[in-house]
Write a structure and sequence with these properties.
The two termini are 15 Å apart. The chain has a single domain, classed as GTP cyclohydrolase I, C-terminal domain/NADPH-dependent 7-cyano-7-deazaguanine reductase, N-terminal domain (GTP Cyclohydrolase I, domain 2), CATH 3.30.1130. The chain has helices at residues 42-47, 56-68, 75-89; strands at 5-16, 29-39, 94-102, 110-118. It is built from three helices and four strands.
């Protein structure tokens, strides 16, 4: 199996409705999102063409739109839906998603989950092999 390169988006700070408690359902809270997208970046490195790259700006905008319009109860669900979006819309083999809720737990800076998903986890076909 070929080793994959990484595209990272760090500390994307957004606001949304998230949580199970009544007050969490009415007031937007901060969430901090980190993405690591695994893909073959050699074509982009050779061509210098954005069409051959994982466009992290477009990926970030799609994540922002998903999260800011969401009303998930669990950070696990949010992380899963972010992973599904990235794997469905971008030429990415695998993704790690970390979602944190800063200040959600007294005396803790943040609470969060980190998941890793592949295309197979969402029944997506493998990406075509590149020459």
């Amino acid at each position: 199996m070929m080793a994959l390169d990484r595209v990272e988006v760090r500390d994307l700070l957004l606001r949304c409705i998230i949580g199970i408690n009544p007050e969490e359902r009415t007031h937007p809270q901060d969430v901090l999102i980190n993405l690591t997208m695994f893909a073959d970046l050699r074509p982009a490195g050779n061509s210098d063409d954005i069409g051959d790259a994982v466009n992290y700006k477009t990926a970030s905008k799609r994540v922002i739109a998903l999260v800011e319009q969401s009303q998930f109860f669990l950070v696990e669900k949010m992380a899963t839906e972010i992973a599904r979006l990235i794997l469905t819309e971008f030429a990415v083999e695998r993704v790690q998603v970390r979602v944190e809720k800063p200040g959600a737990l007294r005396f803790a800076r943040s609470v969060g989950v980190e998941i890793e998903r592949t295309r197979a986890d969402f029944d997506l076909p493998p990406l075509p092999a590149r020459p």
